[in-house]
Write a structure and sequence with these properties.
The complex is a heterodimer of chains A (322) and B (315). Chain A is built from twelve helices and 14 strands. Chain A is an alpha/beta fold and 322 residues long. Chain A is globular, with a radius of gyration of 19 Å. In chain B, the strands form two sheets. Chain B has a five-stranded parallel beta sheet with strand order 1-2-3-7-6, sandwiched between helices. Chain B has a two-stranded antiparallel ribbon with strand order 4-5. Classes of the chains: A alpha/beta (322), B alpha/beta (315). At the A-B interface, helix 3 and helix 4 of A face helix 5 and helix 6 of B.
């Protein structure tokens, strides 16, 4: 048996709906026989017609409705059709959900699923990675699963968390990533994972870029380098301890993310390591992100825009020479 | 109405005396509409008041001390100094805590009502307040539409006070009458003279009753003039004198008091006693809050997460 990243997300939701009647799924095209633009909810409306609900194209109201329901004890899962469209819901997510516990002492347990990241031919408005924006604001948990197993257990965990969770699922991984079976339990939220051990250089990454980083590590292994790859799993909370421990072993740090380069998760990792672990570094820490332009449509341009295993390996090679 | 007016006049004088930091936003001229919003709600109903709804909040059951604690920055208030003035609420008691972004609370109210329906509760309604300014936001449009799609028992009371801060109606919208929008969303729409308490009680009360009975969502558009600035920092000098002579510019409290006297429901002496009693209650709430401790930066719990293990300080 083999399960894809996408199927893991569907299975997690099926389990959540079965186990907890406070859970409902709310989003565009998630219901009926259609089951979502990516089929992440396929078949769920058949089993739970009252709790898998299509919505109008109203991202603000979708999240607002989820917030109201969550305040009243429900555990809504919102599917944004694409992460990019969550910009319409930013106000509800940042200003309403993100501030509510701090202001009123009443938490807002919503989970917002964001089909994130680039695939060939998707262009500027169906390719974005929003994790850095959400991580910047207080009150939100930002999950970025990079494996099938994490996609499953972290979504279950997201719904159990009393605070709002932004769950960034990567569209490129939907079909490309497979596992033999789904685990019962994953690492605790906020704990990073050493995805590959090494002693020459640490690559810190998450989501699809973690898979690309593993590819880069494999390429560099052919050249005799042992690269350690840290999978952050959540960019907020950020497991600084695991990153620092890895940098203590390797002395070199490269951070890789798919979001735009100005600020963001990779910059945050470097700032923390420089602050807390400057003495551990044998060379200036480096980062690799997408280019500082909108995400292009044409496959040739798209491949050049985002980091990939080859580019990560090249950047790592240069850093290893320092 | 009287209590809200008395309270807000006190808040204004505290603000002028430099005792309130931030702003003071009052509902002067809108108390008849607002009180009617709070009066017909029952336990279990959801209330989403907005900036000018002191009367409605008090009618819904908000204690005066909540107001004075929030305005005066007491650590013991519902917002504990973390938020101020009208940005307060008791979500656990179904009084939602508004954010400043107008229209956002409509869909939140829809969601709260859906949760009640999911749980199989019956006989509940939600009431969300908005102004004609907030009616022009995208969030309001999305909220109205999703309310009708979900067929939740919602009443939206929109008070047209003729100014969005300083901008008059003719730069806010171009439709003939705001209530005409009701049918476009699948709401039932009604209008009311917001300066007439009896009319407000009738029209808003009936809308609440219809929503409770399972009719489609209800929109009530009330017409008034905001008898203050946007906030107390604003002298509203942009409101022309002729507008202040319009029928909608009447002071609803004065109209109500005169009607009560004309109909001999009360005598002037009793009314004077009511005023005194309101002032005493307000003074007591102010005095109590003034004695209470303020929040302190170095003792504050700087954690925005209810699940503390997940808190992640950057420091």
């Amino acid at each position: 048996m083999s399960i894809t990243y996408l199927e893991a997300i569907r299975e997690a939701q099926a389990k959540l709906l079965r186990d907890d009647e406070r859970v409902f799924i709310y989003g565009q095209d998630v219901g009926g026989t259609f089951g979502g633009a990516f089929k992440a909810t396929k078949g769920l409306a058949k089993e739970f017609p009252a709790r898998v609900l299509n919505t109008p194209i109203s991202e603000d109201a979708i999240v607002g409705t989820a917030i109201g329901a969550a305040m009243q004890g429900m555990r809504p899962i919102v599917e944004m059709q694409f992460a990019d469209f969550s910009s319409i819901a930013l106000n509800q997510i940042l200003n309403n959900a993100g501030t509510h516990y701090w202001r009123t002492n009443v938490p807002v347990p919503i989970t917002v699923r964001l089909p994130s990241g680039g695939t060939k031919g998707s262009g500027p408005f169906h390719s974005q990675s929003m994790e850095s924006i959400y991580a910047h604001y207080p009150g939100l948990i930002v999950m970025t699963p990079a494996t099938v197993e994490d996609a499953y257990t972290m979504l279950i965990e997201a719904v159990a968390i009393d605070d709002p969770v932004i769950y960034c699922e990567h569209k490129y991984l939907y079909y490309h990533l497979k596992a033999d079976k789904l685990p019962e339990k994953g690492l605790p939220t906020g704990r990073a994972r050493i995805a590959r051990e090494g002693r020459d250089l640490t690559i810190v990454s998450y989501s699809a870029m973690m898979q690309e980083s593993l590819g880069a590590a494999e390429e560099l292994a052919q050249e005799g380098f042992e690269i350690e790859v840290v999978d952050l799993r959540t960019v907020k909370p950020l497991d600084t301890d695991t990153v620092l421990a890895s940098v203590a072993r390797t002395g070199r740090l490269l951070c890789v993310g798919e979001s735009f380069p100005w600020g963001g998760a990779t910059a945050e990792v470097i700032a923390r390591v420089t602050n807390q672990g400057f003495h551990l570094l044998d060379a200036a820490p480096q980062r690799l992100n997408a280019k500082d332009t909108p995400i292009p449509y044409h496959p040739n341009l798209w491949s050049a825009h985002r980091p990939n295993a080859k580019k990560i390996a090249a950047k790592a090679r240069a850093l290893l020479r320092e | 109405m009287l209590l809200a007016r008395t309270l807000e006049e006190k808040l204004v004088s505290l603000y002028r005396g430099g005792l309130i930091t931030g702003g003071v936003y009052i509902g002067k001229g809108q108390e008849a509409v607002s009180v009617a919003c709070g009066l017909f709600l029952q336990e279990g109903d959801i209330f989403a008041p907005l900036i000018r709804d002191q009367a409605g909040r008090s009618a819904f059951g908000e204690p005066l001390i909540d107001v004075t604690r929030t305005y005066l920055g007491s650590r013991l208030g519902p917002m504990r100094g973390r938020d101020g003035n009208i940005h307060r609420g008791h979500p656990r008691n179904n009084e939602l805590a508004m954010i400043s972004h107008l229209g956002a609370m409509v869909s939140v109210t829809v969601g709260a009502l859906m949760a009640k329906r999911f749980r199989g509760e019956k006989n509940f309604v939600g009431l969300a307040c908005i102004g004609e300014g907030g009616m022009q936001t995208g969030a309001f449009h999305e909220g109205m539409n999703i309310a009708a799609v979900e067929q939740v028992p919602l009443v939206i009371v929109a008070t047209n006070n003729h100014y969005a801060y300083s901008t008059p109606n003719d730069r806010e919208f171009a439709c003939h009458d705001l209530v005409d929008r009701a049918i476009g969303y699948g709401f039932e729409g009604y209008t009311v003279d917001g300066t007439d308490l009896a009319a407000c009680l009738d029209v808003i009360g009936s809308a609440v009753k219809r929503a409770r009975a399972g009719r489609p969502p209800q929109l009530v558009v009330a017409s008034v003039l905001r008898l203050s600035g946007h906030g107390e920092h604003d002298d509203a000098s942009y409101v022309p004198e002729e507008v202040k002579r319009e029928p909608f510019a009447r002071d609803c409290l004065k109209v109500a008091e005169q009607t009560i006297l004309d109909l001999e429901l009360l005598d002037a002496e009793t009314l004077a006693e009511w005023r005194k009693e309101a002032a005493a209650q307000v003074d007591e709430a102010v005095a109590a809050a003034q004695k209470e401790p303020a929040p302190e930066g170095d003792k504050e719990d700087w954690c925005a997460y209810s699940m503390r293990d997940l808190a992640n300080s950057v420091e």
